[in-house]
Write a structure and sequence with these properties.
Length: 115
């Protein structure tokens, strides 16, 4: 999974379809992400010293990673993510639509260095 925390994403299916938000948590084992403001549920909390009033709290629940797409930084539309090696041998993510870099994900390696 190529999604990372703080990526701007668009929910493309489910009850929150069309919602834009930042990725807060990435769970690579379960292939799920938590998006800010999406997948909201009500959690009922009883009174305690930590929460003296009790009541219902809203919290975000995980969404499957296949239901979100990264927003392209150039035009603000959803795009797929690709991976490529740079000339110095480091690996980076890029937006397939525009080709713009989304950040490095691995340090330089001699075996992938272009001469």
């Amino acid at each position: 999974m190529l999604l990372q925390v703080d990526d701007e994403v668009l929910v493309i299916s489910g009850g929150d379809k069309g919602h834009r938000g930042k990725v807060l948590v990435v769970d690579r084992k379960k292939n799920k992400v938590v998006v800010e403001g999406a997948g909201l549920v009500r959690k009922h909390v009883r009174r305690s010293q930590k929460n003296p009033q009790g009541g219902r709290l809203s919290k975000e629940m995980p969404i499957h990673a296949s239901n979100v797409m990264v927003i392209d930084p150039t035009d603000g539309k959803p795009t797929r993510i690709g991976v490529r090696y740079l000339d110095d041998g480091s690996k980076e993510r890029f937006a397939k639509k525009s080709g713009k870099s989304l950040g490095r994900i691995a340090p330089a390696r001699e075996s992938y260095k272009k001469s």
